[in-house]
Amino acid sequence: MKTGTQLRALRMGAGLTQTELAKETAPHGLKQPRISLIEAGEALPSVKQLAVILDAVNATPSERLEVLRGLTHGG
């Protein structure tokens, strides 16, 4: 599964819209347009952005590992 698809699934699993996620991550410089690009596979998140997103959706350690595996395999 592509990284953007994984992150979208995690966000939706957390019951968040892109706008709600952006409100939680804005203090870290991550806004809705960037989230949209990442989920669409048009941009990859920076390490900081990825950590902020995973924290905001309360990703489990195994979910985090899956996302990292996706990135290392061309995600």
List the helices and strands and how they pair.
Layout: H1 3-13, H2 18-25, H3 32-39, H4 47-56, H5 61-72
Total domain count: 1
Structural class: mainly alpha
Report the principal-axis shape: globular
Going by CATH, the homologous superfamily would be lambda repressor-like DNA-binding domains
CATH topology (fold) name: 434 Repressor (Amino-terminal Domain)
Question: How many β-strand stretches?
Answer: 0
What would you say the CATH architecture is?
A: Orthogonal Bundle
Can you tell me the CATH class? Answer: Mainly Alpha
Which stretches are poorly predicted, pLDDT < 50 over at least 5 residues? none
Largest beta sheet, briefly? none
H/E topology pattern: HHHHH
Note the gap between the termini. 8 Å
**Number of separate helices:** 5
| Range of strand content | under 5%
Radius of gyration using CA atoms only = 11 Å
Helix content: 55-70%
Mean pLDDT: 94
Give an account of the 3D structure:
This protein has 75 residues and is an all-alpha fold. It has a single domain (3-72), classed as Orthogonal Bundle (434 Repressor (Amino-terminal Domain)). It has five helices and no strands. The chain has helices spanning 3-13, 18-25, 32-39, 47-56, 61-72. Helix 1 (3-13) runs antiparallel to helix 5 (61-72). The longest helix has 12 residues, at 61-72. It starts with a helix and ends with a helix. The model has no long low-confidence stretch (mean pLDDT 94).
